[in-house]
Design goal:
By secondary structure, the chain is an all-alpha fold. It has 2 domains: about 1-30; about 40-125, Orthogonal Bundle (Helix Hairpins). The N and C termini lie far apart (about 65 Å). It has helices at about 5-30, 35-50, 55-85, 90-120. The protein is flat, with a radius of gyration of 19 Å. Helix content is about 85%, strand content about 0%. It is built from 4 helices and no strands. The protein binds adenosine-5'-triphosphate. The site of adenosine-5'-triphosphate has 11 residues, from helix 4. Adenosine-5'-triphosphate (ATP) binds near residues 32, 87, 90 and 91. Its main location: membrane. It is found in: Cell membrane. It is a multi-pass membrane protein. This is Diacylglycerol kinase family protein.
């Protein structure tokens, strides 16, 4: 196999991985109301960023928060699916796994809200 074939196969693998990730996002988005709500809030925050003309460093923080929030929600969904795959019966460890994953999203969301307020409140001339 020459190097052109090898790099074509690498590209195909990369494209396949990307399409699996797109499918994963689509599935989670269609089925998870929380992910839809977080995506909507993200769009509102982006619109607010344009409206208030926030600085470049503020944009970087906001984008990091949005990416982190959606990533946390996706990981939470993945954990829920794995738990449901392992058992449909009540199990204290299943409960712990789901509740801890949900807590991770909550902690991230709470942090994001605080940082969001620190960024946007000065633009509202409230503080
Ligand atoms: N197999 C299980 N064993 C024990 N507790 C479970 C099990 N499955 C879910 N639970 C618990 O029941 C509650 C509801 O879980 P559920 O799977 O409906 O997710 P959820 O928190 O409603 O999230 P979502 O709305 O994203 O589905 C949670 O406290 C969860 O820990």
């Amino acid at each position: 196999m020459d190097s052109t074939d090898k790099s074509r196969r690498e590209w195909n693998r990369l494209i396949k991985s990307f399409s699996y990730a797109c499918n994963g996002f689509k599935n989670a988005f269609v089925q998870e109301r929380n992910l839809q709500i977080h995506s909507l809030i993200s769009l509102i925050v982006i619109a607010a960023g344009f409206f208030f003309g926030i600085s470049k460093s503020e944009w970087l923080v906001i984008l990091l928060l949005i990416g982190g929030m959606i990533t946390a929600e996706l990981l939470n969904t993945a954990i829920e699916r794995v738990v449901d795959l392992v058992t449909k019966d009540y199990h204290p460890l299943a409960k712990q796994a789901k509740d801890i994953a949900a807590a991770a999203v909550f902690v991230y969301a709470f942090t994001a809200i605080i940082i969001g307020l620190v960024i946007f409140l000065p633009y509202l001339n409230i503080i």
